[in-house]
Every structure is written in C-alpha cells, then in structure tokens.
Here is the input.
Amino acid sequence: MQTLHHVGYVVKSIEEQAAGFVKSLGATWDQQITHDPLQGAKVTFLRTPGAGDAQIELVEPAGDGSPVSRFLEKGGGLHHLCYEVGDLEEHLKLIRAAGCVVVRAPMPAAAFQQRLIAWAWTREKLLLEFLEAVKI
Amino acid sequence: MQTLHHVGYVVKSIEEQAAGFVKSLGATWDQQITHDPLQGAKVTFLRTPGAGDAQIELVEPAGDGSPVSRFLEKGGGLHHLCYEVGDLEEHLKLIRAAGCVVVRAPMPAAAFQQRLIAWAWTREKLLLEFLEAVKI
Here is the structure.
C-alpha cells in the first residue's frame, strides 16, 4: 500500500501566504497550523477539489536550525513528496534496497496525530517523506 | 472540475534516471518518452500505486533555450504541479482573477494527444500547468 498523501511546499510565512494558494489552487483550507518542534517546522494543509487528490502542505521553518531554513534561503518552493505507506519499517527496508538513504528515522508527527513519519533521499535527489497509515 | 494530474520533476536524462525513480517510488513506467518541440522538453510519466494518484512527470530539457534548462542548471528537481481542468480558457480567467500570471497561452501538447495546456505562475512563485480535460 502506497498513496501520494501530499506535496510539500516551503514558504516564508503560512499566515501571510496561505490565502494566496487557496485562491490560485481553488483549494479549501481549515486554517489549522501545526507547529512540530521535532520537525523544526510549522505546517498546514490545503485540499484541492479533485476526489482523492493529494493535499498541498505548506511548510514554514520554525526555530533555529530548521531543516527547511536553507531551502527557504534558496527561494523555497516545491520541496518533497509524501507517500502514505502500510508498515513504515517494512517500507524503509524496501526503499533502502532501492538505493535510497533514510535521513530521519521514524518519529511521531504532530501534524498527523502522532503517526510515524520518516524521511529519505532517493539517488536522484528527490526528498521523500513516508507516513505510516492508520492501523486498522 | 480540477484534479491534480501530475507533479513535474526536472532531470538531466530520462533514459539514465527513470529507472531509479521507478525503484524508489515503486512506480510503473511504460517507457514512452515524448519529445515536444513546442515545450522544448522530453517528458515521460510514472504511475505510483495509489488509486487516483497523481503521476510523476520526468522532464528533460530538449534543444537550445529549453524553458527548463536553467532550472536544471540550478540542480533540477520538483518543478511544477499540473491540474486537469474542464474549460481551459475559463480556468485561465479564474486564475488571472486570483492574481496568477499566465506565462504560456494554451497550445496543443504532444504528451497529451494534442490536448491544450497552459502555464501560469502564482504570486507565491508556484509554477502551475493546466491541462484541458477530454471533452465528452
């Protein structure tokens, strides 16, 4: 099981910029901004109208040494793809075998009700986030 | 009607790099590479397993002065989001009203059986492609 959950986009200020995205994407936004100290970021999610569409995640650096600060200094923008996967540890084994480098081991994420996320780089320099699906 | 159709990712060489994406994303790939001289690019599409998932489009510059050459020189990577829309001209009116700048007016696209595409920048510097849906 693997589904495109969201596309991450780094901005300077969610508060100042989210409304513009809502307008240009025709998106809906619940205005909920989550600060995750473990990720050094504030995040919020925009939903676009297509059924089953991946969400757009706006990511704003929070705190010194945020992992996205340097990306923002270079201009920000499209940053990562997040896939929801069944068993996270199993999936990380698969992607390591595919040549990816796991750069952040699984940890609970404030934005996803403490579900586990992990981060990896592909050999082609695509940054991937993996979100463990809700266990049924 | 508006659906996330694909996420565009700029690479140096589709032939050399597509297999890596297939592995790390667990994607399927029909190995069809389309050269579109109007876009100055070669493109190919990867499908990820989730039902209704947006595709990943790999984009390789083709020819002198390709619009993606400069982006590739800066490192390439995640480049644009493409939404499929009902009536393209109508949609462009909407996004202009939302403050976007249409940078390439509608033109037929080789990768989409000559369906019309157009390009726009949002104020927040997100590059959007719009693909006109098949008319029924």
